[in-house]
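Q: I'm writing up a methods section and want to include an example of the input and output format. Could you take the sequence below and give the corresponding predicted structure tokens, formatted cleanly so I can copy it straight into the document?
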Amino acid sequence: MSFFTDLAHQYIDGEWRPGKGSWDIIDFNPFNGEKLASIPVATAEEVDQAYRAAERAQQAWADTNPYARRTVLEKALRIVEEREPEIAEAIVAELGGTHLKAGFELHLAKEFLREAIQLALRPAGQILPSPTEGKENRVYRVPVGVVGVISPFNFPFLLSLKSVAPALALGNAVVLKPHQNTPICGGTLLAKVFEDAGLPAGLLNVVVTDIAEIGDTLLEHPVPQVISFTGSDKVGRHVATVCAANLKRVVLELGGNSALIVLDDADLDYAVDAAVFSRYVHQGQVCMAANRILVDRAVEAEFTEKFVAKVASLTVGDPADPATQIGPLINSSQAESVSRLVDETVESGATALLHGRADGNLVSPSVLTGLPADSPVLQQEIFGPVALLVPFDGEDEAVRIANDTPYGLSGAVHTGNIERGVRVGQRIHTGMIHINDGTVHDEPIVPFGGEKSSGLGRLNGESMVEAFTTQKWISVQHGRSQFPF
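A: Here is the clean output for your methods example:
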């Protein structure tokens, strides 16, 4: 496909060029195995070149009138709108996203670009009083300088853009490393959009590479002051450790094991719809997905019957078919891992109300119940189409089960009493929770992030200003200070 081969390059200092590594990252369609592109990997030397280009370009960009920076982002938004059908097809092909998923991702991407446009004018300074006579304290909001962004494969266009656009709007330069499975949608596609929008060379660099080639160069390099990482908690811990050793700030958006709680007074038909979407959207490859669906025993039988029936009706198949609701997992390793997890959980005593099977990278949905309380699967993130139904007796037990996880990203509570839902939600140790809704939500101006092993820091809205700027104190003595010697 020419779309992919045209973008199968490194993008460093405004130049499209092949990587100098001795091996290639092969970009495959996860549904049919079609080779989309072959990209020679970037070396550690090229990562250095990308960071140095960003460093050279950043100060002039920071000094650029924020209204001019805003204009570039406005053009980028128009380009995304104009090319939306083409980008959607790329999402379907490169990551096996359904048409529904591609539309969902692009809708959010445009919303976040609109917010980034506003962010260019957001930073505000302060004048603070001083106990010293004649002194004026000025506090400036300034860009951090260069930001390193590492993005995941599940929502690559959105989650790359989500850090890249605000960082640029606020006067920084960026080096982006997309996931190896989605180097185009998560990386070079963004470079093309911003290049065509008139972003000066060097401000956005994309390196398509792998830790096997560059080690921790991306994290240890002296130029970036902030690393924004979205991915697994295992890798996130490594990122945090390396950055701490190098005194760099991090924003970590990591995995989840969210609970969707169905109380005894919930609208069950609505709760079923919310739970099915929250668990199976994009094949369950979503950090906010409802891994665990907790149901009050008073309504367990009715909810379970309706839930299983709806899951069984989902269409599994080619993501290019608009009727498909469940497409492929990102690669064969992931498909095999999810299938093995289901088999092992059933062998350990769980009951499979639906037992999904793998057909290549397609894995049909599973619904498991009767899990032993100490089942390891209850503690982990499942990046696949597997739902765990867990009964409970009353609010206190629901809260205890929901909190019995090392993660704390999202969640939901379904109830006929809104304030009851809020009270329960306040007791769940999570960064985000939604009353009478699904668990998968993201909005441009609300703080997005998790607790415990689900991450550090927040993104979106004012949190972007905190993440990608720093404060600088300049004092002015209008009189004369008195010194003790």
